[in-house]
């Protein structure tokens, strides 16, 4: 059963409340809030997400399946990619593996960005979630 966790539902709701260019502005605000990766985690040790148009790396720490940690690295000159990563970070970080695995694969459609962002970029966000879920279902 697909269930959107409260934190992610809140982000989706924030986007739903915006119109047109305001959605892009909100995405840029998220991009600026992407947490830095911890000092002991090197980008080279992170998993690349080649489906993203800009370089994006992610790390899923499922040592504690009740509190999964998600880390993303994307360059500042890739605000859309950083924004997507920040949405996933804000909506999923520190949730349980089961909660993350239950997130609808197409939740990002509810953000209402399809008219503003290319399908290729939206696929990048989908790919991030798919890789997170794959990592959790194999760990």
From TrEMBL:
Residues 13-134 form the Fe-S metabolism associated domain. InterPro entries: Fe-S_metab-assoc_dom. It comes from the Bacteria. Pfam families: SufE. Belongs to the SufE family. This is SufE family protein. It comes from Mycolicibacterium hodleri.
């Amino acid at each position: 059963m697909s269930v959107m966790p409260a934190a992610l539902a809140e982000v989706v709701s924030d986007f739903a409340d915006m119109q047109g260019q305001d959605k892009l502005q909100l995405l840029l605000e998220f991009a600026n809030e992407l947490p830095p990766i911890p000092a002991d985690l090197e980008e080279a040790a992170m998993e690349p997400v080649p489906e993203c148009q800009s370089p994006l790396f992610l790390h899923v720490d499922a040592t504690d399946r009740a509190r999964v940690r998600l880390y993303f690295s994307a360059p500042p000159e890739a605000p859309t990619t950083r924004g997507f990563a920040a949405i996933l970070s804000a909506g999923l970080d520190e949730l349980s593996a089961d909660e993350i695995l239950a997130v609808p694969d197409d939740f990002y459609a509810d953000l209402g960005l399809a008219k503003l962002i290319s399908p290729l970029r939206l696929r990048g966000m989908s790919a991030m979630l798919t890789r997170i879920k794959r990592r959790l279902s194999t760990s």
